[in-house]
Amino acid sequence: MGRQGFWRGVVDALPFVVVIVPFATLFGLLASEAGLHLYEIILFSVVVFAGASQFAALALLKEHAPVLIILVTALAVNLRMLMYSVALAPHLGAARARTRAFIAYFLVDQSFALAMQDYEKRPDQSLAEKLGYFFGAVTPIVPVWTISTIAGALVGRSIPAGYALDFAVPITFLAMTAPMLRTRAHWVAAAVSVGLVLGLRAMPYGTGLLVAAAAGMIAGAAMETWAARGKHD
Amino acid sequence: MIDRADFWVVVVGLGIGTYLLRFSFLGFLGNRVLPWWLVRGLRYTAVAVLPALVAPAVLWPEAMGGQTDPARLLAAATTVLVGAYTRQMMAAIAAGAAVLAALHYLA
């Protein structure tokens, strides 16, 4: 594994630690408030290792939604990882099978964003250096994510009511999404989805969300197609 | 209280499903080309799913008995605007939380 790439990855990932600490702490906190034990919270985080979908699954579990609905919704949140896998395959697809199995587990928003940026900036890297960078980038993220989750779970029960903590998840999710709204098509996808989910709230247990999200994706894709056509004419 | 049987099914199912999404093309699909309409749609999953997931809680927060709360609404709007403008997740969280705290302090 390329040592040079590894350390470059570690250094580049350090700023992300600032984002992960509050996010993971909040998850540990809310999971413990929902009555989960520490070992259950840790296993949840280690097995799934995808924060946004863990928040979604936790909220639906608390509402006693049917298991199938919870799984479909939380997996829809993680569908973007299919895109990540597609995008990294040309760079890392030649690695050994066992190495690729590890890469897949550690494929999160941060490691993907960092790796793609680095591979595009330095196109002449060897496979070893690319692998080194990828694993370097996840090295600070994994322990910080786990320790912060545990810290949140431990302090969870001692936080007094009245801090409007219910609103921490909406704010975090909106803050994650807003920087992704780069084009008009992204805004259209978000607006269509939000409008529909509010209109369809009579539908039980987040089934309205699935309809709304699918419509939002189609609207975004249609808008992009339409915008591209306008450019060619 | 969370049902423990449901909980474990969700943890295992979500863990396996998420892993397969991540492994898919790196692992066994290789460099197969996806249909363009699918690639285009997948690009919008995050922006379609994440805000819709929390939109009802923004408009009708449970902590307020389902009544719209101007402070929460304004905090949410601030978060989106600051996030879209600065492209910084932490700046957006800080701005939204500050607005919410300030309005609750004033109220």
Mean pLDDT of chain B: 88
Oligomer: heterodimer
The low-pLDDT segments of chain B are none
Taking the sheet with the most strands of chain A, its summary is: none
Element-by-element helix/strand order of chain A: HHHHHHHHHHHH
The SS-based structural class of chain A is mainly alpha
The radius of gyration over CA of chain B amounts to 19 Å
Helix percentage range of chain A: over 70%
Query: How is the biggest beta sheet of chain B arranged?
Result: none
Helix and strand run of chain B: HHHHH
Number of helices of chain B: 5
Our measurement of the CA-to-CA distance between the termini of chain B, rounded to an integer number of angstroms, reads 33 Å
SSE topology sketch:
The complex is a heterodimer of chains A (233) and B (107).
Chain A: H1 3-33, H2 38-48, H3 51-62, H4 67-78, H5 80-92, H6 97-105, H7 109-121, H8 127-138, H9 141-156, H10 168-177, H11 184-199, H12 207-232
Helix pairs in contact in A: 1-3, 1-7, 1-8, 1-9, 2-9, 3-4, 5-7, 7-8, 11-12
Chain B: H1 4-29, H2 36-42, H3 45-59, H4 70-86, H5 89-106
Helix pairs in contact in B: 4-5
Plain-language structure description:
The complex is a heterodimer of chains A (233) and B (107). Chain A is mainly α. Chain A folds into two domains: 3-156, no CATH class; 181-232. Chain A has twelve helices and no strands. Chain A has helices at 3-33, 38-48, 51-62, 67-78, 80-92, 97-105, 109-121, 127-138, 141-156, 168-177, 184-199, 207-232. Chain B is an all-alpha fold and 107 residues long. Chain B has a domain at 49-106. Chain B is 78% helix and 0% strand. Chain B is built from five helices and no strands. In chain B, α4 packs antiparallel against α5. The longest helix of chain B is centred in the N-terminal third of the chain and has 26 residues, at 4-29. Chain B is extended. The two termini of chain B are 33 Å apart. The mean pLDDT of chain B is 88. At the A-B interface, α1, α2, α3, α4 and α5 of A face α1, α2, α3, α4 and α5 of B.
